[in-house]
Amino acid sequence: MNIAQQLVNGIIIGHAYALVAIGWTLLLGAARLVNFGHGQIYMVSAFVAWWIMSMTGAPYVLAVVVAIAAGAVIGAIMQRLFLRLTLSQDLVNLMIATLGFGQILEGAAGLTFGPKPETLTSPLQAVTFDFGPVWFTAQDALAVGATILVFLGLHVVLNRTRFGAAVRMVAEDPPLVALYGIPISRVYISIFAFEGAAVALAATLIAPRTPILTSMGFEQVVMTFVVVVLGGIGSVGGSYVAGLLLGLFTAIFSALISPAYTTAAVFALLIAFMVLRPGKLAAGGNFAR
Amino acid sequence: MSARLQLRDLRVAYDRNLAVTIDHLAVEPGTLAAVIGANGAGKSTLINAIANWSRAAPRLSGEILIDGEAVGGKSADHLARRGVVLVPEGRGVFMGLTVEENLRAGLFAARAGGRAYSLADIYTLFPRLRERRSNLGGSLSGGERQMLAIGRALRMAPRLLLLDEPSIGLAPRLVSLLLETIRALADGGLTVFLVEQNVRAAIAVADSLYLLERGRVVASGDVAAMKDDPRIIEAYLGARN
Predict the structure, then answer these.
(1) Which of A62, A221, A227, B25 could anchor a disulfide with A58, C-beta 3.0 to 4.6 Å?
(2) Whole domain around residue B41: which residue ranges?
(3) Considering only alpha carbons, which residue of chain B is nearest residue A162?
(4) Are A168 and B97 inside 8 Å of each other by CB?
């Protein structure tokens, strides 16, 4: 086994996990909400990018921008649809409603884009860097770099800007926010739109690694869920670390044992963590750190 | 000139239980009105209803007018931006934000109508907050937190400052200091509507008093006359001698 290559693979996969999870992390940390349609936004965004490129011949960069906009719009639509559940923090019904919304997205995508696997092509996928026994593509480097930038950017926005302060206020005491003159629904809509945009960015950067299918959303939800929980339920920094460690774990586990059991092993890890360290699972007021 | 705040036939109910009934109440601009009463009399329910803010979502009917404009049904954030600014019981500051973040967080519209205090104004009014500007709201003492709550409210250019039990949990010396500051704000032209269980403290600073019992105003008038009202003396101030 080429350990160095597995470590590089782990770092790349880990950053991909973290980038896919960042929107959900903010949603959970700031708004204490869940979105089980998250994976389907990932899938739709990947297909939007693919469709733009194959139908109009647009360059990859433009397809990325359009997909991010589409993700943000889907997130904002979800927030408008589920506003009452959002404001009342009705978690169980929101879970069911977002799961249903995800299924509708998947059905609509199946009808629109068909059942065949497609390929989202990035010109950077063909550019490779070889360092002795280790290699990776420019697309991988872009995904890692973009993840780091998005996490740093979110950290700065949350901790250094007035909008970030409003998000932290919503996290701490939603009803009190109104007394500061801030319309809470606008903060919620921004959080949902960010979630959609971030997962769309993740989709367009990561999807070129594998064929895309309209049924791939659920896999993303499953892994995102693990990252978000291991990272400290809603902790932005925790999600980055959890994503990275999970990526390394899956890469090394796949190489040493078998890729077939990776998902099961990840869930065994999650269950062990939840049993052994339940007190470490909630980020609480520190979510923005 | 219309009253800054007018309440007409205001009814506030939780489920089917009527908590507050106010037939008429008016507060003139630049004055300090205080509502006094025992625990459970409906004071917080009343002041929260004016700001249309509550964690328990009561039913409201009747009229609430600010400078003659009916504002019933407007959301709490809209009212706050228009200068109807509530400092709720328990201070209402964000523990996870620093003092300065709390002071910078409020949004107000140009139409708020009152004087917008700058950060420097707030630090002049409460020098202790300048010293603790980088500390989290959660690390402040009760008195500092109340100063921050009032400072935050002043930043929002209030036309009407609604204060719910600002003295609660504070040492007597701090209560005097805070209420003197509130009195000075009213002398400077700010309209203040204060709810207070500490009747002596309220009488010391208010222009007018409303005695609330079981959700109804049972006595009201200028503080000079009201402080001699036997109901207030017997129930809240003790015997004259």
Answers:
(1) A62
(2) 5-91+160-237
(3) B105
(4) yes
